[in-house]
Write a structure and sequence with these properties.
The protein is α+β, with helices and mostly antiparallel strands and about 190 residues long. It is about 45% helix and about 10% strand. The chain has a single domain, classed as Glutaredoxin, CATH 3.40.30. Strands 1-3-2-4-5 form a five-stranded mixed sheet.
């Protein structure tokens, strides 16, 4: 009797966005859940999503600094696991809120708070089921030149300023302005 191998499609972090899917500006951040600056940036991103509703979409990519934050890798894996249940953003925000308490058992409790009821959640964390997806993010971040966190990109271009609301707003406005200049003028009938 032959066994059929079950093929499981995993939703990669690069495919998880919040905001209008047709938005002209993509804001991407490489970060991790134990980093205080990333937690502050998360609050800024929430404001930006509200302020620029319909104009930006946001993508969070994992860049765990495991030499400094030993629990950041499993926290990132838990966010990818949450994405499989359609709860990435809920888990993302719960992880930042509880960034000083990210042990594996705590992550299981946080998953409940995020609305995840998957019985395999803890098993997947212990087994490192989503470790490759986090490693892929880390590799891409290194290839893009990420050195410090949080690292932002706007429509693929690195953002070099301090990630404050005002600085990111200015960069988003500039990106929107560039897009307006590139789009051909419509002729009036």
């Amino acid at each position: 009797m032959a066994f059929k191998k079950e093929i499981v499609e995993i939703i990669d972090p690069k495919d998880v966005f919040v905001g209008d899917s047709d938005a002209p500006v993509t804001l991407m951040e490489f970060g991790e859940y134990e980093n205080e600056d990333c937690a502050k940036a998360n609050e800024v991103v929430k404001q930006l999503l509200e302020e620029y509703e319909g104009k930006i979409k946001f993508n969070f990519r994992h860049f765990p600094l495991t030499r400094i934050h030993q629990r950041s890798m499993k926290a990132s894996e838990s966010a990818v696991a949450a994405a499989q249940a359609g709860k990435f953003w809920e888990m993302h925000n719960v992880l930042f809120k509880n960034r000083r308490n990210l042990g594996t058992v705590s992550l299981k409790l946080h998953s409940r708070e995020a609305g995840i009821s998957d019985k395999k959640f803890l098993e997947d964390l212990v087994n490192g089921t989503y470790g490759w997806q986090v490693q892929d993010d880390l590799k891409e971040g290194i290839e893009r030149g990420v050195k410090t966190l949080p690292a932002f990109f706007i429509n693929g271009e690195p953002f070099t300023g301090k990630p404050t609301f005002d600085n990111l707003s200015e960069a988003i406005d500039e990106a929107l302005h560039k897009l307006k200049r590139k789009s051909p003028a419509r002729k009036r009938a």
